[in-house]
Design goal:
Layout: H1 3-20, H2 35-51, H3 89-96, H4 109-117, H5 128-134, H6 157-161, H7 178-183, H8 192-203, H9 213-217, H10 227-233, H11 242-248, H12 253-273, E1 279-280, E2 283-284, E3 306-307, E4 310-311, H13 323-335, H14 337-354, H15 360-380, H16 388-400, H17 407-426, H18 433-445, H19 455-469
Antiparallel strand pairs: 1-2, 3-4
């Protein structure tokens, strides 16, 4: 494990607690040269990727984890020398990955209590509303799984890589290729657009399955999403070496972070506009809004006349959760300031429409289009590494200017800093990774409990971190 991996392991392990508890234009950070000529191709490719059915919806039979678990397949105790893959993927997943224990969580007392409070007709481990994300549980429209398939395996191989019926035999044949496997139904989880769509479907929600305000009120932890951090929270059962890069490419962490945030904004809009998910009786679906606008003492007046996107909605009206929007705004202002301004205005107009001033659907779709365009542009070409430090400084400066008054925004800012700093470290552009890591630890320390979050404390930690970040980069 190299030093860059060591640093990110430190960052990710600390963020694990953060993610589960509580529940001015700098010199442009550009898309790498040549992306303009790739956009048309990538838009077509992205359309293909995004059109591919998610694993639980795919029109193929799920065969079960045991199909992959042989010691001659992916169940070797140790990795093989000379193999293009490690061959021990099943062992890593079953022993170390929390996805393997997702179903088991439904058997504990907390899950039983949630099911009881929701008056579910079946216990949690038998209820589709729970199994949809705590197991690979194919939709009713999908082919019936093979007898070896077991929901008790949790989120198994096919839950992420797609039902194996059509690709399991060809993927080991002589001359097999990654592109061919995808054509046969393997889900392209190595590609950020597709990975974001898959991960978001459970770690944020979709129009098909969603952790609603009712479910959270019954005891489910608060949901948040950041794809780069979440990717590193579980042990990798792959190795990015020369062979991997030849077959699948190598996409840096900052790009994964940015694409994940842009896709999350699009998903949020989909749910907001969905007639089944976007409303709950007379109320909107409250999980789409800033939780802590309501979840605080009455005497703690938190309304501010302005937000990072402009004039705030009137006191007494709840803002959309704009934490992901803040990150997309940050990224766009670096790669295309004009697009960043359009995005800022689109968020402002959507907030006005939510408050009753304007066409909600039209403004929501306009914002979604900008977010999806950002995701496609990032898929077309990587972000230049030249000014990553400027991007991190802009993020900190936004915080010092008051852009993160609520917990969700501060949480996303901290995770984004982790991704950017880790990439800087891997590029050898930090003078003292240890000092910055300690600085990030101090930033995260004020985010341990959402109900205890104090914006002034977060700003103080950001101010200290900025001094470390502004030090000259390491010389080659």
């Amino acid at each position: 494990m190299n030093k860059g991996e060591d640093l990110f392991c430190s960052l990710a392990c600390a963020m694990r607690r953060l993610c589960t508890q509580g529940a001015r234009k700098p010199a442009g950070l550009r898309l790498t040269r040549g992306w303009h000529g790739l956009v048309a191709v990538v838009v077509l490719w992205a359309g293909t990727v995004l059109a591919q059915a998610l694993p639980d919806q795919a029109p193929a039979q799920s065969l079960g984890v045991v199909t992959c678990a042989s010691s001659l397949c992916h169940g070797s105790i140790a990795g093989w020398d000379g193999s293009p893959v490690l061959q021990n993927e099943y062992i890593v997943w079953s022993r170390l990955d929390k996805h393997a224990r997702a179903y088991a969580l439904l058997l504990n007392e907390k899950s039983r209590a949630i099911a009881s409070r929701l008056n579910l007709p079946e216990p949690a481990h038998q209820s589709r509303v729970c199994l949809d994300c705590h197991a690979h549980h194919p939709a009713a429209s999908a082919p019936r799984p093979a007898p070896a398939h077991a929901v008790a395996d949790g989120i198994g191989c096919e839950g992420c890589h797609g039902p194996a019926q059509r690709w399991i035999a060809p993927h080991t044949a002589p001359g097999a290729s990654h592109a061919g496997n995808i054509r046969n139904g393997l889900y392209p989880v190595d590609q950020p657009l597709a990975r974001a769509r898959l991960c978001l479907s459970c770690h944020f929600g979709s129009t098909d399955k969603y952790v609603s305000h009712r479910i959270m009120a019954a005891g489910h932890p608060r949901m948040s999403f950041e794809m780069e951090t979440f990717t590193h929270l579980q042990p990798a059962h792959f190795k990015i070496d020369a062979d991997y890069i030849r077959r699948k490419g190598n996409i840096d962490g900052v790009r994964i972070w940015a694409i994940g945030q842009a896709m999350a904004v699009g998903t949020q809009i989909d749910i907001l506009l969905d007639p089944r998910r976007g409303r709950d009786g007379a109320f909107p679906e409250l999980t789409l809004f800033d939780c802590h606008a309501c979840h605080h003492p009455m005497a703690d007046t938190r309304w501010k006349p302005h937000t990072a996107f402009g004039r705030s909605v009137s006191p007494g009206l709840v803002r959309l959760n704009d934490s992901g929007m803040l990150m997309v705004r940050l990224m766009l202002r670096q790669i295309d300031p004009a697009a960043g301004e359009r995005f800022t205005q689109a968020v402002l107009q959507l907030n006005q429409a939510v408050a009753g001033n304007g066409d909600l659907r039209a403004r929501a779709l306009a914002l979604k289009a900008l977010a999806e365009d950002a995701a496609r542009r990032l898929a077309a070409g990587g972000i230049s590494h030249e000014n990553l430090r400027a991007m991190a400084l802009a993020l900190v400066d936004d915080g010092l200017a008051g852009a993160y008054p609520d917990y969700a925004g501060a949480e996303q800012a901290a995770m984004a800093l982790g991704s950017i700093v880790n990439t800087l470290h891997k590029l050898g552009q930090l003078t003292s990774a240890a000092a910055l890591n300690q600085g990030l630890t101090q930033v995260r320390a004020v985010l341990q409990y959402d109900e205890a979050y104090k914006p002034a404390e977060f700003q103080d930690r950001l101010r200290r971190f900025r001094r470390l970040l502004a030090s000259p980069p390491a010389t080659p």
